[in-house]
Amino acid sequence: MVRAAVLPAVGAPLEIAEIDLPAPGPGQVRVRLAAAGVCHSDLSLSDGTMRVPVPAVLGHEGAGTVVSVGEGVTGIAPGDGVVLNWAPSCGSCHACSLGEVWLCANALTGAGDVYARRACDGGDLHPGLNVAAFAEETVVAAGCVLPVPDGVPLTDAALLGCAVLTGYGAVHHSARVHAGETVAVFGAGGVGLAALQAARIAGASQVIAVDVSPEKESLAREAGATDYVVASDATAREIRSLTGKRGVDVAVECVGRAVTIRAAWDSTRRGGRTTVVGIGGKDQQVTFNALEIFHWGRTLSGCVYGNSDPARDLPVLAEHVRAGRLDLGTLVTERIGLDGIAGAFENMVAGKGGRALVVF
Q1: Which of 198, 202, 222, 220 is nearest to 210 (CA)?
Q2: What is the separation of C-alpha 105 from the centre of its chain, rounded to a whole number of angstroms?
Q3: SS3 state at 75
Q4: pTM (two decimals)
Q5: Strand, helix or coil at 15?
Q6: pLDDT at 52
Q7: In 3D, which of 302, 26, 39, 35 has the Cα closest to residue 139?
Q8: How far apart, in whole angstroms, are the C-alpha atoms of residue 241 and residue 184?
Q9: Per-residue H/E/C for 153-212
Q10: Where do the DSSP E strands lie in 58-144?
Q11: Coil, helix or strand at residue 288
């Protein structure tokens, strides 16, 4: 039996329950979790902002140790440390053929599978975003695991699976921040804190963090922020005043709300770049008029999973960790057990803290 946090229905509270995991079948791997990050996307799945087959075991940011492998699995063996990859690319769809593996059309097909059953009644369970990391152990497709890079502690490696790949990728792959540019990051949660570190690594001359909570200033500055703005109706004006009245070269929005997307756009200089990482609901409508689009000449772009290729980017991130440029520990503000996930959801809704990490 394995303990897991089960989402019984959209909008329902998580339940800690025992589940029956089968042995890994052909092309599958069984992993004992060391840690799993609690991401805002998990909250979005639980409240219906993003759709997921239910009942499900959520959790998509994790790392652990291989317990066993199924027939045909090569390159991974029992005892290996692995990072879970919730969006494995198929390699054959149109996006993959273009090298845009983060847009793979088939990445989430596994989320509709039945991967385990509730021990109490034998009811079917789906694996959240493919990997079901809110559990002591999980069974995933072999494409959903990548070796933990040398020099990265297994527990910290969980953060690489989403927060860091997304925040780092938003800065380096989507916004393509250059040395000397100015950057504003909206939202100082796990992804935002990773984006702040990424902007510092990129050599940004000024890094402005924006969040609704004054209490997050110390976290943001530790991650690399040179300035801190408490979000308000005057956010864009404050950012322009900090940048010679021009606005920043790049704004990275990590919240997913219409008001912050609009503020990020308004904070960007003429000809600058605004990258939206946050996942918002369909009710979050952002409006622009045709004249301002022409006049400002800004670029507004979406960003999925940091436009990252985990197989390519994990070794790069690991080198930053080993060199001391990327501090994974500073993203974590709370270490909890499975029973603490509901409280971590409440903190995210309230805008408190950075990343909560479930440690097994």
Answers
A1: 220
A2: 19
A3: coil
A4: 0.96
A5: strand
A6: 86
A7: 26
A8: 13
A9: CHHHHHHHHCHHHHHHHHHHHHCCCCCCCEEEEECCCHHHHHHHHHHHHCCCCEEEEEEC
A10: 61-69, 81-84, 116-118, 124-125, 137-141
A11: coil
Residues 40, 47: Cα–Cα separation, whole Å = 11
Q: What is the pLDDT of residue 227?
A: 98
- Rounded to whole angstroms, the Cα distance separating 251 from 319 reads 26
Structure confidence by residue, pLDDT tens digits, 276-301? 999 998 899 999 999 999 999 999 99
- Beta bridge partners of residue 18, listed in sequence order: 3
Residue 355 has pLDDT above 90, yes or no: yes
Neighbour tally for 314: CB within 10 Å? 23
* Pairing mode, strands 206-211 and 182-186: parallel
The arrangement of strands across the sheet holding 116-118 comes to 56-57, 2-7, 15-20, 116-118, 124-125
* Both structure tokens of 12: 């329902």
Residue 350 belongs to what H/E stretch? helix 341-350
CA distance 10 to 128: 12
Residue-wise DSSP of 79-101 = T-EEEE-SS---SSSHHHHTT-G
Residue 51: pLDDT over 90? no
CA–CA separation, 185 vs 183, rounded Å?
Answer: 7
The three-point CA angle 162-166-171 to 5° equals: 160
